[in-house]
Design brief:
The chain is mostly helical. The chain has 4 helices and 2 strands, in the order ββαααα. The chain has helices at residues 16-29, 51-65, 71-75, 80-93, and strands at 7-8, 11-12. Strands 1-2 form a two-stranded antiparallel sheet. The relative contact order is 0.18.
Length: 97
């Protein structure tokens, strides 16, 4: 089933496609070169993102996935993995159109 996840250390991991999409959006928002290696552990701050950049990354994610991220939640997103996990949580909650 599509929503089946494998728990790793008791944490539900986001799908690889979601992580990949987050990486693409982060690269685009921060104008990073295609050669820049991003991993789920990549921290936005380490990539040179300030708080405004992080807001723009979150806006890009909202647009891409058709979700709405609350401000408190967006302030807790510091890595690619955290963004991907939050997106999947919100996408699953989204009412079917």
């Amino acid at each position: 089933h599509e929503y089946l996840r494998i728990p790793i250390f008791g944490v539900w991991q986001a799908k690889p496609e979601t992580v990949q999409k987050v990486c693409e959006i982060v690269k685009k928002q921060l104008a990073l070169s295609d050669e820049t290696e991003l991993t789920p552990e990549s921290k936005f701050a380490a990539l040179g993102a300030d708080s405004l950049d992080t807001v723009e990354i979150v806006m890009g994610l909202e647009e891409e996935f058709g979700i709405s991220v609350e401000e408190e939640s967006s302030q807790n997103i510091t890595t690619v993995q955290e963004a991907a996990d939050l997106i999947e949580k919100l996408v699953q909650k989204k009412p079917e159109a």
